[in-house]
Design a protein that fits this description.
By secondary structure, the chain is of the alpha/beta class. Helix content is 43%, strand content 19%. Bound molecules: adenosine-5'-diphosphate and magnesium ion.
């Protein structure tokens, strides 16, 4: 080891502390990575992999990025789930030994603060989970949850209890969509699968221990106990919060001034939406390409500020259960919907408001730049305008009180900061003249020198008679006088030649160098003084962070309300009536996304929905492509929209608050990689049956379809029966199915109703009416759909013939009573009785392989088996 260079030794010492991060090691103008890190960086960032000698005999791999572009490279690594430790030079080179280096921050997916790395429309959460239970068996009894967004200072904790704590945790993950999830090492090592887009960080178990967690929290908040935060009910929540905070401190190197409190919360105030439901309803992204466009949020989000966009997304992910709060939101939306002009003006004024929330946090942690203050000033300028515009709208009164124009801060910025300051503190010109006596004094003293230099050119031209003489400046030689070769004979004797160019000579004079020293020294001084003034100013403003953050919140609310109002007006939505009972009545409801996607000539057909105390379960039948899936989702989405405080796409809607929506899709509509689709489907269904209450809304789309017809039908039927008969359930249920045999169910289940999506038959063709009407569909029209799908004509014809044969066959052994209802009893009976031999034989028939003659023979055989 002794022949290792000191630099290499320094690197190894630092790297040892960050084994799980890629270490960006500052070397002059580059950040270099070495060894394994270099190989990863070269691969992930398309860098050239070079090598560097570390001793007389060995070289190691190396890959570097230029310092000015480092953020984009870090962003790419974070995007791919890596952590990056940034190691800076913390002393100036002094000729003796190597400079000191230190890791100044660790960037991980959940701890980003750089605006360039953040998406402005998402919160960026780090979430810590403390499972309580048995790591060996993986059984959870409880779970402490804490999450923080250091770009906004949000920090909250809760605890989820009960045997389904793990499920509840998944629901929280789905609601919050954290970028990074922290778990105790011992749990993480047993294998944890997180939803896509979240990266798992194992963290030392002892950091999650109660005593360690409490110490971290009390030290940070400078309190003696935690009792003032109301966290007592959440012991595991405290463990998670302590670990999260400690992890943030590790990565931010203690710079966490923005986290000023921790908020206990419960999930009971929110509608429960499990990950499958969020996905199936395409709330914030589409299933197909995971884009916001085409999702519900894509329709509702017309916000114009980053804060508004984040708030609306939060609302979408956690619909409320509180009538009063919802009505207050609806009042606000209604008042903005009713004034076209004011709304337009409000939105226009909002456009000028920067991301006050994140900006205030940069101020708090000392990371704000000069232009941030200008942006702050401009944003605050908009506040009085906004206040004036919302004053006549009483429902926005509470919101108006959040807005504070911060006159004092605006005035301070005006006085202190020049109109067009440089982007960073490395350049002068930030502070306005007249703000600081010290700065003005330095400027004054060097004023003469600067003026002297400014006048030098005309003066020397006159003295020498050289019209082309120029005064210039460069970094190496400082100020110089430049004379072309043609005129060098006229140069006065006090000029000292410094440099020869192709066409000219450059000179200096002793006097010029004296003034130059004055000016350059002053420049350094000015930079230092400006920097100090700026930092003091930022601290002064940061002291008002509460007011700024409250204003940011007000702006976010106003923006979200205006956005909802704008969609409501443009898309002709109506204000829903919310109630505390469990009815659900929608007139002329539409699917907000599908109605936008219909193109050229197709109009969306509105549909009614009516759940009362007698009709709890709606069975929706109809051919493929009729609109079953769209219809049942539309009901779920309208309910959800109402419970975020939005208007809804309907003529009229009365909605008894729903505590949870379950949306399940039969397996064939989706491809789950690697698992048995039927298994997935059944696991989801089991969860649904254990998790719902009387107040839930169930949307079941072709459940049971992931297996053979009879199994599927049997399961579908028993699921419906269970929901219907279980005393705690009887929840509002929409069951779309192409098993038209299920239309028999309302005969035996008094609270079940049949509906079907109507089609009209025109000859052999069918026309989709997309209209939901009472009664069950009597056939599946599969052959028609095959025709629509473009199967060759002979195939369709043949299928139609076979179908007719089979239908006739069915009718021959149909008992009279059922026949009148035009159902196929052979298939219904299987639920009730032992298998019918005729039916078994029918099942065994391979229709595709039958000739017409064989079909006829089979028919005779079937008749015989049926006992005729
Ligand atoms: P199903 O589930 O019955 O097979 P879908 O709900 O998937 O049918 O609907 C098929 C297509 O029909 C949709 O993609 C949409 O274009 C159209 N559609 C559905 N409902 C309506 C409606 N109410 N009005 C107009 N078009 C509709
Ligand atoms: Mg469907």
């Amino acid at each position: 080891m002794s022949d290792v260079t000191p630099l290499r030794q320094q690197y190894l010492d630092i790297k040892r502390e960050y084994p799980n991060a890629i270490l960006f090691f500052r070397l002059g103008d580059f950040y270099e990575t070495f060894d394994g890190d270099a190989e990863i960086a070269a691969r992930e960032l398309d860098l050239v992999l070079t090598s560097r000698p570390v001793s007389k005999s060995s070289r190691i791999p190396m890959a570097g990025v230029p310092h000015h572009a480092v953020d984009t490279y870090i962003a790419r690594l974070i995007e791919r789930g890596y952590h990056v430790a940034v190691c800076e030079q913390v002393t100036e080179p002094n000729g003796r030994g190597i400079v000191e280096r230190e890791v100044t921050r660790v960037v991980t997916p959940g701890t980003i603060i750089e605006p360039e790395l953040l998406s402005e429309k998402h919160a960026n959460y780090l979430l810590a989970i403390m499972p309580i239970g048995d790591p060996a068996s993986g059984r959870w009894e409880r779970a402490g949850i804490a999450y923080a967004d250091i770009s906004t200072g949000e920090f909250a904790a809760t605890e989820l209890t009960g045997e389904n704590a793990a499920m509840l945790t998944l629901e929280e993950l789905a609601r919050l969509q954290p970028r990074e999830v922290l778990m105790p090492q011992s749990w993480a090592e047993r294998g944890v699968t997180l939803p896509p887009g979240m990266s798992l960080t194992p963290y030392a178990d002892w950091r999650f221990e109660r005593s360690s967690a409490e110490t971290t929290l009390t030290q940070h908040f400078r309190t003696r106990t935690l009792s003032g935060f109301g966290l007592d009910e959440f012991p595991a929540g405290i463990c998670a919060a302590g670990a999260a905070l400690q992890y943030l401190r590790d990565t931010q190197k203690n710079n966490l001034a923005q986290i000023i409190t921790i908020r206990p919360y419960t999930t009971s105030g929110f509608m429960v939406l499990d990950p499958f439901t969020r996905r199936n309803l395409e709330l914030t992204e589409t299933i197909r390409n995971r884009k916001t466009q085409g999702s519900l949020l894509g329709i509702l989000d017309r916000t114009v500020t980053a804060m508004g966009a984040r708030l609306l997304r939060t609302w979408m992910s956690q619909p409320l259960l509180d009538l009063k709060r919802l009505n207050a939101r609806l009042d606000a939306v209604e008042s903005l919907a009713s004034t076209e002009i004011a709304r337009a003006e409000i939105r226009e004024a909002l456009r000028g408001v920067t991301d006050l929330e994140r900006l205030t946090n940069r101020l708090l942690i000392g990371k704000a730049g000069p232009r941030d203050l200008i942006a702050l000033r401009h944003s605050l300028d908009a506040v009085p305008t906004l206040q004036g515009l919302i004053a006549p709208l009483p429902p926005l009164g509470a919101l108006a009180r959040m807005l504070d124009a911060c006159e004092d801060i605006r005035e301070l910025i005006d006085r202190a900061i020049s109109d067009t300051p440089p982007a960073t503190l490395n350049n002068s010109g930030i502070i306005r003249a007249g703000y600081s006596a010290e700065l003005d004094d330095i400027m004054d003293k060097t004023k003469h020198a600067r003026e002297w230099i400014a006048e030098l050119e005309p003066q020397e031209r006159a003295r020498t008679g050289i019209g082309s003489l120029k005064v210039g400046y460069n970094k190496v030689f400082g100020y110089y006088l430049e004379v072309s070769h043609a005129n060098t004979d006229r140069v006065p004797s006090d000029y000292i030649r410094k440099q020869t160019l192709v066409n000219a000579e450059r000179y200096i004079t002793p006097e010029l160098k004296e003034y130059e020293t004055l000016v350059l020294n002053a420049e350094e001084q000015i930079l230092a003084v400006e920097r100090e003034l700026f930092e003091t100013l930022c601290k002064e403003i940061a002291a008002h962070s509460k007011r700024l953050l409250e204003t940011a919140r007000g702006v976010a609310h106003l923006d979200s309300f205006a956005s909802l109002a704008d969609v409501a007006v443009r898309e002709a939505y109506c204000r829903p009536t919310l109630t505390d009972d469990d009815l659900l009545i929608i007139e002329d409801g539409r699917h907000p996304v599908v109605e936008q996607l219909l193109d050229g000539g197709f109009r969306y057909v509105p549909n009614d929905t009516h759940f009362d105390s007698m009709g709890r379960i709606h069975i929706i039948t109809g051919p493929n492509m009729a609109g079953k899936s769209t219809y049942i989702r539309q009901v779920a989405i309208i309910t959800l929209m109402a419970q975020i405080g939005s208007f809804v796409p309907a003529g009229q809607a009365t909605i008894g608050l729903v505590d949870r929506i379950f949306a399940r899709i039969g397996a064939q509509d989706e491809i789950h990689a690697g698992q048995s689709t039927f298994m997935v489907e059944m696991v989801e269904t089991a969860r649904l049956l254990s998790g719902s209450t009387r107040r839930s809304l169930l949307i079941l789309d072709e459940v049971g379809r992931g297996t053979s017809t009879y199994d599927g039908m049997a399961i579908a039927r028993s699921v419906v029966e269970y929901i219907h008969n279980h005393p705690g359930l009887g929840c509002r249920t929409l069951f779309a199915t192409h098993y038209h045999e299920l239309t028999e169910l309302p005969n035996v289940l008094p609270k079940a109703r049949n509906y079907n999506v109507a089609v009209a038959e025109e000859g052999d063709e069918i026309v989709f009416l997309h209209k939901v009407v009472p009664g069950g569909a009597d056939r599946s029209y599969g052959v028609h759909v095959a025709q629509l799908a473009g199967l060759p004509r002979p195939v369709v014809e043949r299928a139609r013939a076979l179908l007719r044969d089979l239908e006739t066959a069915g009718s021959t052994f149909e008992p009279q009573a059922v026949k009148q209802k035009r159902h196929n009893p052979a298939q219904l009976k299987m639920f009730d009785e032992a298998p019918n031999p005729a039916l078994e034989a029918l099942k065994a028939i391979k229709v595709d392989e039958l000739s017409p003659l064989e079909a006829l023979t089979k028919l005779y055989e079937l008749k015989r088996l049926a006992g005729e």
